From TrEMBL, chain B:
Signal peptide: none annotated. One of its GO terms (biological process) is ATP synthesis coupled electron transport. This is Unannotated protein. It is a multi-pass membrane protein. Keywords: Membrane, Transmembrane, Transmembrane helix, Transport. One of its GO terms (molecular function) is oxidoreductase activity, acting on NAD(P)H.
Amino acid sequence: MFALLVAQNIAFYIIAALMVVGALRVVTCKNLMHAALWLVLVLAGAAAQYILLASEFVAITQVLVYLGAIIVLFLFGIMLTRAKTGTDEDLDNKKSAKFIGGGIAVLLLGLMGYSLIDGFKDTEFGNLMVQRTAQVSDSIFSTYLLPFEVLSILLLAALIGAIVLARRD
Amino acid sequence: MFLNQFLLLAAILFCIGVYGVLARKNGVLVLMSIELILNAVNINLVAFGAYWNATDNTNVSGQVFALFVIAVAAAEVGVGLALVLLIYRNRQSIDIDDVDMLKG
């Protein structure tokens, strides 16, 4: 049991480091296409973290929806707006805005980090058990049935809205 | 494993996403940073869900909420990219700075 947790911890820290590097590259990269591909690394890392948390269905949905659909949508967006394929120096705001943004981000991180470390000190996960897909579906179609139906209406509305916005006439 | 590991990772990703939204000018990159933020929230939800699930094995609310967030994020990206496309078609550039017609 102990050895297994050590392996999980090592896996967590490797994946977390990859995710942070990927996220930093997404927001600093000078090449639009590369930024989208670094985003793939972050999203895949999140899927791996869900596996570590024994949440199989969310991990699979993350791969299908984010890696499969949303990244393709981003690549289409990049192509349809005829972005430069090489490096592009004109992707960022001016220096002062970047400094303010960095300051706000560091401030937020300090605040959240302090409150998390203060609030959850060393709360451990108890006995992590596999959360089965059958349980998730039972929960969606009993407790969360109404939000689920509302969500399908939202998706339909977003679909129609996107078509109306993007068609040319 | 500690609960805080996951929460702190999510906090770092969230802050990087906030920096991206504030520092980037390109519309598509701003949408990508918003995706980073939404993913950070999802990691939080799944981590708390797993923590809760360890005490009450029938409760999977964390996962269900994460799935809802994923669906809403998909809708958001669809509409967001349609908007970016429309801005591009009207002014041949997707710099968020150029969209300042509301300024007096």
